[in-house]
Design brief:
463 residues; binds adenosine-5'-triphosphate; Rossmann fold; alpha/beta; 5-stranded parallel beta sheet; 42% helix; binds magnesium ion; Helicase, Ruva Protein, domain 3
Length: 463
């Protein structure tokens, strides 16, 4: 597969010719001194140095790249006779050389090797060694290593039901999907239901299904999730919110692996794995009579705990997750790859924050920062750790209402931000787009998405 962009350094036209088939865009620099501007402007995926470039110059360039923390694959044509460069090549995994500059087969193989190393390095940075590639759980902390170990053990056993516990935003649904993929494979269904979001009756008929006419609005038969999941997984999110009488019915399913539709008489077999999650302490819920003790013990065979981000045992994942979100977020496609990371102070701020909303909050903070940041590194001024306060500054009558923290979301923040930029720019779209650091096309899309309308100006009196 071709690389997106290759930068060829040197005056030999042949090097450009052999590199061309391996890339969509080819950039060229005559001399090493010319590469720095091009690196900034083109952001290539590989630098190829031709055979005529003096080896010490290449060595100096590589050292400079290293000092600038620019991690970039390198391919050197021709013999490497400089001892410093030889040493460097042995240590730096993403560098390779091709002795015969005309051997396009060897060049292709070298590019493949570089690509593979590059991919492995990226994956190794974010995921634990034994984290299966189908499970994108970022984290290398002690806490995550323990959680992942339990996920594997439970998934490979016949343990059913499975309980996942942790504060809001710690990754319970992600862990549930990991159990599902490792146990059932990605061909089977994963169906999720939030027990806090539905009324008791709706929840019951969603889970078990109902027969036609079993209640007033049941005008047709419905298949419940327990049946729909087949041999896959039913994820019961926030199980602590399930009404007590439904808890009793669920316990029966867990024990007998059978259930009946609401209003039905036929016994249906349940083959699915039931994964439940809770951000409440279920034992405490039992003590205050809101959760059935027998169901609690049935669920608690081998609970998988997910630590909060502020825990000493998980803290080291904060910056790793931040970097992962910077690299993978699609919130602002035109800035992708342009933002390289965090400033040292921003990193410090993130590690000191308490993270009550855990990974979800971190993701939102980073995505908001990507939207606001105009430079290559996210600084403290764009890390809004208390977003509800971001509209307080200079707020006076006629300016947007402060959004209550309970229903604050990234979309709302973005909508407010776009609206503010438009107001500030007097609804001139180009100005507003440049204030936000986005293109006019993106701004138009956001105006449409949020249905923003220019306020009607006061009619001028007719003189
Ligand atoms: N270890 C992780 N690696 C990558 N992304 C993560 C990780 N943990 C959580 N996330 C992301 O954070 C967000 C919240 O995760 P998830 O929905 O799994 O949390 P939760 O514990 O179920 O939250 P809640 O209790 O509020 O339902 C999701 O976007 C998820 O993809
Ligand atoms: Mg969840």
């Amino acid at each position: 597969m071709a690389l997106e962009k290759i930068l060829v350094v040197g005056r030999q036209p042949k090097t450009q010719q052999v590199a061309r088939p391996f890339t969509k865009k080819l950039y060229a620099a005559d001399e090493v001194a010319d590469i720095w501007e091009l690196l900034k402007a083109a952001d290539p995926n590989l630098i190829v140095f031709d055979a005529d470039i003096p080896r010490p110059q290449i060595f100096d360039a590589l050292r400079t790249l290293q000092n600038k923390s620019m991690v970039l694959p390198i391919l050197i044509m021709g013999k490497i006779d400089d001892p410093d460069l030889c040493q460097y090549m042995q240590e730096y995994e993403m560098a390779d050389c091709v002795e015969n500059p005309e051997d396009s087969g060897a060049i292709g193989q070298a590019i493949d090797r570089i690509r593979k190393n590059d991919r492995d390095n990226a994956a190794n940075r974010f995921f634990m060694e034994d984290c299966p590639s189908s499970v994108s759980i970022v984290g290398k902390s002690r806490a995550m290593s323990q959680s992942l170990r339990l996920i594997r053990i439970v998934a490979q056993s016949a343990c059913n039901p499975v309980l996942i516990v942790g504060e809001t935003g710690t990754g319970k649904e992600l862990a549930a999907r990991a159990v599902h993929i490792l146990r059932c494979g990605s061909d089977q269904k994963f169906v999720a239901i939030n027990c806090a979001a539905l009324t008791a009756n709706l929840l019951e008929s969603e889970l078990f299904g109902h027969t036609k006419g079993s209640f007033t609005s049941a005008d047709r038969e419905k298949t419940g999730l327990l049946e729909l999941a087949g041999s896959g997984t039913v994820f019961l999110d926030e199980i602590s919110e399930m009404p007590l009488d439904l808890q009793a019915k669920l316990l029966r399913v867990l024990q007998e692996k059978k259930f009946r539709k609401v209003g039905g008489t036929e016994e249906i077999e349940c083959k699915a794995t039931i994964v439940a999650s809770s951000n409440r302490n279920l034992m405490q819920e039992v003590e205050i009579g809101r959760f059935r003790k027998d169901l609690y013990y049935r669920l608690c065979v081998c609970p998988i705990p997910l630590a909060p981000l502020r825990a000493e045992s998980r803290k080291e994942d904060i910056l790793l997750l931040a970097e992962y979100f910077i690299q993978t977020s699609n919130i602002c496609p035109e800035k992708r790859g342009r933002i390289k990371g965090l400033t040292a102070m921003a990193a410090e701020l993130l590690t000191r924050h308490h993270w009550p909303g855990n990974v979800r909050e971190l993701r939102n903070v980073i995505e908001r920062a990507i939207l606001l940041e105009a430079s290559e590194r996210i600084g403290t001024s764009n890390l809004l750790l208390n977003p509800a306060g971001m509209f307080d500054q200079e707020r006076s009558e006629g300016q947007p209402e402060r959004i209550p923290i309970k229903d604050f979301s990234l979309e709302k923040a973005e909508k407010e931000l776009v609206k503010r930029a438009l107001d500030e720019a007097g609804w001139q779209k180009s100005r507003a787009a440049s204030l936000l650091g986005i293109t006019r096309a993106t701004l138009y899309a956001k105006v449409k998405q949020y249905n923003l309308q220019e306020p009607i100006k006061n009619p001028q009196p007719v003189s």
